Amino acid sequence: MRSLLATVLAAYLIAAIHSILAFINKRRSVQRVAEWATIAGFILHTITLAVDWMIDGHYPLFFLRETLSFLAWALVAVYALVLYRYRAQAVGAFTMPLISVLLFIALLVNPGPTDAPEAFSATRLFPIHTTLVIFAYAAFFIVFMASVMYLLQERNLKLKTFSAIFHRLPPLTTINELATSSAVVGLTLLTLGIATGMIWSWNRYGRMWHNDPKEIFAALTWLVYLVLIIYRSTASWRGRRAAWLGVLGFALVLCTLFGARLLGGYHTFGLLLGF
Amino acid sequence: MSIILIGVNHKTAPVEIRERLAFSDAACADGLRRLVDGEVVREGLIVSTCNRVEILSATAAEQVESGAGRLAQFLDAAANLPAGFLSNHLYRHTDEEAVRHLFRVASSLDSMVVGEPQVLGQVRRAYSVAVEAGTAGRILNRLVHHTFRVAKRVRNETGIAANAVSISYMAVELGKKIFDSLKGCTVLLIGAGEMAELSARHLVNAGASRVLIANRTEETARQIAAEFGAVTVPFEQLDQGLAEADVVICSTGAPTYVLTEAQARRALGRRRNRPTCFIDISVPRNIDPAVGKVPNVFLFDIDDLESVITSNIREREREAERAELIVRSEVMQFQQSLRLMDVGPTIGALREMFQEVARAEMARQRKRLGVLTKEQEAAIEALLVSTVNKISHPILNQMRRFYETSEPAASAPQAEDSFDLDE
User: What is the pLDDT of residue A120?
Assistant: First the structure.
């Protein structure tokens, strides 16, 4: 399904370029092109994943290529939601390029064997676990984006630098709300993801916790976002510090997602990115 | 027909001259009726604003010079100035240049502050006065409607009017960068300067729901409060007002700081650190600059506002370049539609003439055809007419294309002459 995926990449690239152009010169017509390209790419991407699933016979979220592609798909879905709910177009200028890069790498890497080990494809719990976690990461990415935008905009307002970026970024309270609600969604998904992983592991190995790096990082990530949410929800508005937590949390997400593979451990299965 | 535009604006004439020229609506209608004589000046319209007085008119192509002279005389007379007095200040545009000028004026590219929205309304009013006076005809109707379309396009497709360029509107603009909507926001006015009042008015128009006013003299506060449906806050209870306010506008005449850092910190604590926008438009400053260091407080003094305005004006000027491109392409389109308008009647007349020839031939030869039924007679006539139509169609089309790409005034009369259409 390489050619189909390449078409998806083309659509995302168009969306990315137009999002950046729209961010720079604020043209509504350009923004519309970006949004339509995103929608077209997303539909095609969904079809690609479904076809992969049918042909390969396992849930398309196991090998490295699949994982990258699935992650990109989840990010587009989450970005589309953000766009729909907050009209925060600026997010696209940062998200779409990253999504394109993810998909580009997915196209480059070895597709791997077509059959996943029996143990993973047989149970329903495993795909649910991985899907939940991927979507949680996508939500945390939005938290990260919003936090960075918040810090930039807050700095602009405090230092009174009214540059082009100042005119393009959404208002502070919008970004803040976006960060908070994305964090809540992300944490919920991550909690469910970790829980399903534990149950799966219990069923298969008779133990819930393996003490491998990925699990430890995941637990740390979970804690940071919990702290972030509690910190934000207790009484007062704490824009700046909460935003820094959003950035820190995402650094941990990256460690969990990629770092754990380098450190080895139970979550690395052959060619996997690792779950 | 030719379009002529003459006038003065803020770049060519000082206010002393502009104010002598300014027309009221009634004077406009009156003047137009005197000006448009149906011979030299066929149509007319007067745009009179504080920055410009312009007369737009349509004359026959060969009477451009006398028409322009008449317009200039008219302006001299209207301002009670000796003839020729204005000539140093007047600009004069004809045809394409006049169209371009009008498009630029209505799109606010020729304004003192690029992108200010009032001028379009002023052109609109000038047009309705001309319509009522009966001096807007075929050409001006078309031109003015096209102008409205251009102005709308420029507004929609460029950011020429996107960013505020007045101090009083800055509060709204900055507020919108902090709060996703000003709906439901509370505004606190400290001091009751005119500028603060104007800012508050803008904020209310943008959706702010409550206005609090604190002023040293209660009486003034109450007066303004009545205008806004606002609530007065005694100066001693300023802290309470601060805790509630999302946007604070300060403009007292006080020589020292009215608001201190400690006060701001207390207020922020009481409003649970929800962000607050402080705008200090007083000189000397009334809000301690240290207030800006309090987390979630955003403080802007008059210089900050000026610098945003400068950056906004620069942004508008960048957008104006894009607007000029739109104007250029629209001018071309309008000129083309004008040419078609000129050539349309000519082509219609030609077609009529050809058909007339066919019918005349038919009448001449009728006797030779002998006895025919009504249907047969009609069929023969239809046959002749449609043959003539079919033969002339490509020629007429060729003509139409030719006119689209050449000078309107020059070519249409020629065609009329060469076919003796006037007879």
Answer: 59
Question: Does residue A59 have a pLDDT over 80?
Answer: no
Q: Does A239 contact B275 at a Cβ distance shorter than 8 Å?
A: yes
Predicted local confidence at residue B56, as pLDDT? 94
How large is the average pLDDT for residues A205-221? 78
CA distance linking residue B101 with residue B109, whole number of Å: 9
Q: Is the dihedral of CA A197, A198, A200, A205 positive or negative?
A: positive
Statement: residue B54 has pLDDT above 90: yes
Query: Distance between CA A191 and CA A185 in Å, rounded?
Result: 10
Put simply, the answer to whether A26 touches B298 (Cβ < 8 Å) is no
Helix axes A239-254, A125-159, angle to 10 degrees: 140
Mean pLDDT of B248-261: 87
Residue B124 binned pLDDT confidence (cut-offs 50, 70, 90): very high
- Contact yes or no for B236/B190 (Cβ under 8 A): no
Residue B79, C-beta contacts closer than 8 angstroms, at least 6 positions apart: B17, B20, B21, B86
Confirm if A219 and A193 have CB atoms less than 8 A apart: no
Give the per-residue pLDDT at A111. 64
* Nearest-Cα residue of chain B relative to residue A26: B159
Residue type for A99, please?
A: I
Alpha helices in A164-258 (DSSP H): 164-168, 172-205, 213-233, 239-254
d(Cα A197, Cα A211) in Å, to the nearest integer?
A: 13
Give the C-alpha separation, A226 to A190, whole Å: 11
Give Cα separations from B374 to A77, B366, B381 (angstroms).
Answer: 75, 13, 11
Residues 306-365 of B with CB under 8 A from A: 307-308, 311-312, 315
Residue B304 is nearest to which of A160, A172, A177, comparing CB atoms?
A160
pLDDT tens-place string over residues B269-283: 888 888 899 998 888
Block residue for tokens 């077209």 = A40
**pLDDT score of A267 more than 80:** no
Asked about B50 being catalytic, the answer comes back as yes
Among B164, B155, B162, B157, residue whose Cα is nearest residue B120: B155
Set B50, B185, B250, B277: catalytic member: B50
Residue with tokens 């649910």: A128
pLDDT digits (tens, 9 = 90+) for B361-404: 888 888 888 888 888 888 888 888 889 888 888 888 887 777 66
Would you tell me how many other CB atoms lie within 10 Å of the CB of residue B290?
A: 14
| Residue B43 and residue B140 in contact, taking contact as beta carbons nearer than 8 Å | yes
Which chain B positions have a beta carbon within 8 Å of A157's beta carbon? 174, 177-178, 298
Q: Which residues of A242-274 are buried (b: 16+ CB within 10 A; e: fewer)?
A: bbebbebbbebbbbbbebbbeeebbbbeebbbb
How many contiguous H segments (helices) and E segments (strands) does chain A have?
Answer: 11, 0
**H or E, element range at B6:** strand B2-9
